[in-house]
Design brief:
The protein folds into 2 domains: 236 residues, Type I PLP-dependent aspartate aminotransferase-like (Major domain) (Aspartate Aminotransferase, domain 2, 3-Layer(aba) Sandwich), CATH 3.40.640; 110 residues, Aspartate Aminotransferase, domain 1, CATH 3.90.1150.10. It is 40% helix and 16% strand. The chain contains 15 helices and 14 strands. The chain starts with a helix and ends in a 15-residue tail after the last helix.
Length: 419
């Protein structure tokens, strides 16, 4: 076959990834959901595991929206009315009314003039950043920004690219000042919440820096924030890192419908000219199908729930469960990072121990994600737990009980026993 030589070359690359420890391996296949009962949240069934129930602590469904009856009903009703798929890209066959209603709702939720929906937040970032880059643009990016930002910057090919040390505002300021000598536009880009650690960017300080240097650039200093893990999970009303840091609205905000809102898709909110320009020029919008009308309707319902008394209750419960879990980690002698975000890392600082703990938790019916060298630097190995409003106190305690079986006395320098 003509592809035999290609397959051989690809197989060699897979072998190389395996030797480097970079293979992600086979995916778990979820094949069922057991409803919440008896004080416990939902449990999940995995193909090949029979009827064994699993507590899912490796999902971005921070508010449990994907399983809420109202969200499911909204999607089913819209699917029956508009069909299963969008039919084509929007400039060819038009937008469905749920798409337009969703974009208006997103703009209102974030107190912005306009919004544009993409097929995913990854597509939103890829479709946004290159459109902001001219011949004399500097992009200044946090070292731990998400892969979508890294790839979007590569696609944009800016005249100047600076990567500043994670959350180092001094280096950001220096890089911004350096850019004034050769560039007429600066684009500062950062995650709102950093997905592997659950820490957040100091958007109040970043916005203050940008405003202080804005006049030094002919086109200004612009702040772009991807708050996909923050919106719906952080802040008193779920407005994300902007609300949590009290930094005022950033210039351009990107987020997702596929995490706390529990559906699918991504979006950008900003001023009307920006959004009009993206509709005309962003290939990830112009030439890619949108989310389905049913998904748009479901996302609209999820936003309505977040923006209500029910949403406030869910957010309060999420904060309570996050605090309960992190306090439990510390009580058991494990290391974690402070903060209110429901990404709760258990820092192991050892790859073998990370793998052993993940396998132990799976045997005990708890699904988590382990991050080992060389995916992360040596000494930064961790297990990422993700808390959800679907989790109950009994769920949190069950996970901690499983972890306790691997914990050593608190005076251990490692904080947990070696497997």
């Amino acid at each position: 076959m003509p592809t035999q030589r290609l397959s051989k070359a690809l197989a060699a690359q897979l072998d190389e990834l395996s030797r480097a420890g970079l293979l992600k391996g086979a995916e778990s296949v979820l094949c069922g959901v057991m409803p919440a009962q008896a004080g416990y949240g939902p449990r999940f069934l995995i193909e090949g595991e029979g009827d064994k129930p699993f507590l899912r602590m490796n999902a971005n469904n921070y508010l449990g929206m994907s399983l809420r009856a109202e969200v499911i009903a909204a999607e089913e009703e819209a699917a029956a009315k508009y069909g299963a798929g969008p039919g084509a890209v929007r400039f060819i066959s038009g937008a469905w009314s749920p798409h337009v209603a969703l974009e208006r709702r997103l703009a209102a939720f974030h107190s912005r003039p306009a919004a544009i929906a993409f097929s995913s937040a990854y597509a939103a970032i890829m479709g946004l950043i290159p459109q902001l880059v001219g011949k004399k643009t500097a992009i200044i990016s946090d070292a731990l920004n998400h892969n979508c930002i890294i790839n979007a910057i590569s696609l944009a090919a800016p005249a100047v690219k600076h990567i500043y040390k994670h959350l180092d505002m001094g280096e950001l300021e220096r890089r911004l000042d350096e850019s004034t000598t050769s560039c007429d536009r600066a684009v500062i880009v950062t995650d709102g919440v950093f997905s592997m650690r659950g820490d957040h960017a100091p958007l109040d300080r970043i916005m203050a820096l940008a405003r202080s240097r804005d006049g030094a650039f002919a086109d200004g200093a612009i702040v772009v924030v991807d708050d996909s893990h923050g919106v719906g999970a952080l802040g008193a009303t779920g407005r994300g890192t902007e609300e949590y840091t009290i930094g005022g609205p950033v210039d351009i905000l990107v987020a997702t419908l596929g995490k706390a809102f529990g559906v699918n898709g991504g979006y950008v909110v900003g001023d009307e000219i920006l959004i009009r320009y993206l509709r005309e020029r962003s290939p990830f919008y112009v030439y890619s199908n949108p989310i389905t009308p049913a998904e748009a309707a479901a996302a609209h319902k999820a936003i309505d729930i977040v923006d209500s008394a029910v949403g406030l209750s869910l957010l309060a419960h999420l904060r309570s469960m996050t605090a309960r879990f992190k306090a439990g980690l510390i009580r058991l002698g494990f290391e974690t990072l402070p903060g209110e975000h429901p990404v709760a890392p258990l820092v192991t600082r050892d790859s073998a121990r990370t793998v052993a703990l993940v396998e132990h938790l799976r045997r005990r019916g708890v699904l988590v994600t382990g991050l080992t060298y060389p995916v992360v630097p040596r000494g930064d190995e961790e297990i990422r737990f993700q808390i959800s409003a679907d989790h109950t106190a009994a769920d949190i305690d069950a996970a901690l009980e499983a972890l306790a079986e691997m914990a050593e006395p608190k005076d251990s320098p490692m904080g947990a026993k070696q497997p």
